[in-house]
Protein 1
Amino acid sequence: MIDMYRVVETDNYGRDYPDEKFSLPYHLRKEDAVAIAAVLNSGPEGNRYWKVVPTGYELAPGFEP
């Protein structure tokens, strides 16, 4: 069985409520997910960044008042 991964948009500053979102609706091989995250992270540094996580990863919620 091939391990599958996803690309997640998250907070770039490690805050308590990163409001994560999956960037793509499908699962990828690790090499492909890493390549996509690298392209997304290649721009100027901002409030968000993209990381690679294994399938089954639970998104961290945003702040809900």
Protein 2
Amino acid sequence: MNILLVNPLCRRPVVLPLGLGYIASVLRNQGHKVEVLDINGYQYSEKEVEDILKNSDYDCAGIGGLTSTYKSVKCLSNVIKKFKPGVPIIAGNMVSTTHPGLLLENTAVDIAVIDEGEETCKELIRALENGNDLQEVKGIWHKKDGIIYQNPPRPRISDLDTLPFPARELFPVRNYIRNNPDFGLRCLDISAVRGCPYKCIYCSRPFGQKVTYRGVDSVIDEIRLLRKVYNAEYISFVDDMLLCSRRWMEELCDKLLAKRIRVKWGGSGRVNLVDRELIRKMKKAGCIHLSYGFESGSQKILDNMHKQVTVEQAARAIKITQDAGIFLLGSFMIGMIGETRQTIQETVDFIKRSRLPDDRLFFTTPFPNTFLYERAKAMGRLPVNEEKYLESLGEMSSTFLVNLTDFSNEELIILKKEAEQDLRKNCALRVKIQKELLRWKVRLGGLRICYADEGLKGAMKMLILKLKKKIFKKSQKNREHK
């Protein structure tokens, strides 16, 4: 079959959609012709998208995206049906997993793939190609003659190493690298872990609570590929729970060092799963950036979230990470159930006391398929029209949708703004200084690596190249000024 995979407009193209990349690789391995319409990667206009969808030749269309892309997916499915009424439309990723019934009822999407899609899509496309009954395909919801059917769930993929690497070559990789210059390095993303064992009430846990890791050798092979093909200098692990297994992380660090793989990397951690020994090993193996989902500096709010961590654990994780020289970012939200002026101030004080470079707070937002969403429903805080609510989901640092507190809407918005202004007084300069220092450390590290591998001659070559670039830029500015 000719299959068109679509990445809808979401936000500034920084992270290449690895989910669609995996699906593309799997389908190509099955002998299908796959093309990608990366609307977000190219930032296409509506007119450009319509022209491409109208003039492309495809037997099936697949759209993947986050929950916040619901509105885009709805619009895209309508356009596809307008030009290709007989083409089946499949939706995947969180936009279909969190609310499949609502999606099928209110959009032109025909099939919703639930959770992991690699094995499901192989069986699904085969069924569509042969005209078989979709009732036999596990892991989907689908509609026929206006009736929505829910098929049995598909078991999780137990061996992630059986999956091919994402087909990045079908996407505008250069655009993603250009839009994500982490620490002045060429950055690309990798996924190594699926699942999370914790039960934070605001998280939808897209792959469930069972944690599955790729083999370390597979991950290292992919890193080598990205360095060779795209000259990647920094690898960002996009997984929610990269540090869930200490044994796996130590093996990754040991093999990166043993194989002398010269690459910088970073990812997400959890404050109750790190210690000084592990962080030092990660730093030695090339880790220069970690992010933690702190969410609050108030123990009361952390408990309300079922976060299963303490403020003391968070403070300790910050100290050992900063002491190791790893750049640290976190996320914090305001507006959780039970939030008060005191708990907000505790969060602000925690950020300032820890010297974190965070000056932006997110509004607590109930997403479908979370405990928080059900709590908000029970509290009568969600809009009656759930579809309109889904269409309004956006960037949570600025989009305010649901008030779960005893404050008025106006009060909560003002409190968030005041808290951010307080944090911003010294934070902006601190972030700039920290990032600039890290950039220089990375550059000097590059010289040291070059010296170790190629001797003084190699180090001098790199230094001369940097000086030439500076001189060229300066001469260009002088000519433009004249």
Protein 3
Amino acid sequence: MTPQLSPLSLNQLTRDLWGQFDPAAIAQLAPLADDQCYRPKFYKAPAGSQEVMDFNTYAAFGLKITSGSLIYGFYLPCAPAVVPVNSVPPEFLVQITDSSLTRKLFDDPVSSLFLANYKPTMQSNFLVQAGSFPRLLCAPYPVVGDGVFMIEFWETSGVQQRVELVIGVLEVCPA
């Protein structure tokens, strides 16, 4: 019997150190790495044509995720091209509601600062210009019912900006 190793644990900035959250969450996802029933997929909200928001506005968007999938975390782009290096994402609040269960993922709308997990690498600083690692949930969130989610954004920076949230999902493969 071989121990399970998650591809997420190969990130050189994520080490299994005492008191750190990422390694514990990665250990939960490790058995799914070689599971043929799931494949990684990314969902983006809002759509590309709707991601520029005026200052102090509210917008709600629907998102359909394949039922049976597992949501494992969020990717939130930062602006490392700004000198000095800026590891802060765009400022906004977000609330995600599972329409099938009428359940909110967060008690109150959460700041984008709590969804960012910017861990730059040499390569990501020069090529990708985005965060290299997701903000993992404490446990994978199962998508049930019709898989429809309502994603609400509140722009809070006071300036017009581009707002986007990428959701990391392990999508169930067809039989």
